[in-house]
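Technical note accompanying the year-one report. For the benefit of new consortium partners, we illustrate the data format agreed upon in the data management plan: each record pairs a sequence with a C-alpha cell string. No post-processing was applied to the example shown here.
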Amino acid sequence: MKITLLISLAAAAVLAMTDAAPINRRPHGTTNRTLRAGHAIPLTRNSNFKQNTRGHIAKLNRRYPGINILASTGNVPLTDSNPDLEYYGTVSVGTPAQDFKLDFDTGSSDIWFPSSTCTTSGCTAHAQFNSKKSSTYKKDGRPWSVSYGDGSTASGILGTDVVNVGGVSVSQTIGLATDESSQFASGPSDGLFGLGFNSLESVSGVKTFMDNAIAQGVLEQPVISVFMPSVRRNGGVGGEYLFGGIDKSRYSGDLTYVPVSQEGYWQIAIDDVGYNGQSLGQSSQGIVDTGTTLVIVSDDAAKAIHDSIQGASNDPNNGWVVPCSLKDSSDNVSFTMGGTAFNVPLADLAYEDLGDGSGNCFSGVQGGQNDLWILGDVFIKNNYCVFDQGNSQVGIAPLVY
C-alpha cells in the first residue's frame, strides 16, 4: 500500500489536535489587572476527550479537498476461477479480522457474506462471519434481500463493522446472510462486494464502500481500477483491483474516459460494434459489469457479430456457438466508446468447449439483452477499466500483459 504524507500539513494536523483537547488557561500578566478590551473565556479540559488522528486528518481532507493527508491505495490480488468464470479477492471484516473471498461486482452495490447463524447449504459451504467475535461490530437489524439474473437469492440482516480492502479501512454497513439459495454452495467465493452506485443498494440510504472511503478521505483518488487476467493470455495470474489509484503499467496508450449516462450501474454509451475494423451498424446503452462473465448484447447485434464469423451458429440449446479453432485467430470484434474502438479477440469468443465432440465452443458474446447491453469479463480481461466515481466516468484502455 502506498502512503502519501505531506509533512507540513501532517504537522499542522498534530497542532490542530493539540488545540482540540481543551485546557484551562488565561492571558499572561492579567492576574492583577483588568483587560483593556475584549472578554476572556476560560476553557475547561474535556475529561471524555479521546484522540482520533484519523478523524482529524479526514476533517482536514474535507476542508482542503485539493490535499490528501495519509490518503492511500488498496491493492487486492485476484484469483481467477474455473478458468475466467469468476474472479475473487480477499476482504477482511471486523476486529480481529475475519477474512472472506468476495466477488467484486460493479453490477451491484451490496456487500454481503454468510452469517454464522445461517444453516443453509449456500452458507455452510463457505466462511461465515461471527459478529460475536468482533469488538467493532454494531447491530443494525434491518432486513435485506438480493436476487440475481441466474435465479440465485440471499437475504438476512444488516450490521456495521470495519471493512478492510487491501489496507484501506472504513466503517461499513454489511449484509449478513441468514439464508442463501443452493446455487451459492458450489461457487468459489463466500459472497459479493458491490461496486455500483448507492442507488442499487437493496436497502435505501445505505452508503457503499466507495461512498464512505471518499467521504473519509482515505483514498488518493476516488477510483477503482481493474486488471482482470486471462488464462489464455497470461495464465490467469496477477489480476488486481486497485482502490484509489491507477496503474499505468497495466495498459497501453491513454485512457479514454466515457461519461456515465445514468448512475446506478456503470452505464455508458456504446456507439458502434465492429468486426476487424468494419462497422456492423449496432449501438446501445450498456454497462461495464465485472460480475458478469460474458458480453451480452441485443439479438440483432449478436447476429451481426456471428454472421461475420465463419462456422458460427445459433444453437437452440446452447445459444451462439463458434468453432473452437478460433482460439488461434487474430481477428477482433470491437466496441466503440468515447470515440475509441476497444477490441475483444475472437480467441476469447471461443469461450468453452461444448464437450459433445462437435468442435464447437460456447461463444463469449451472446444475445438476448435488447435494452441495456452488458460488457462483462470477456471484454474487461482485454481492456483496463477505471471506475471513476468522483467524476462519474469510466476510463478504458487496452491491457498490457
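Partners are asked to follow this layout when depositing records. The first strand starts at residue 74 and ends at 77.
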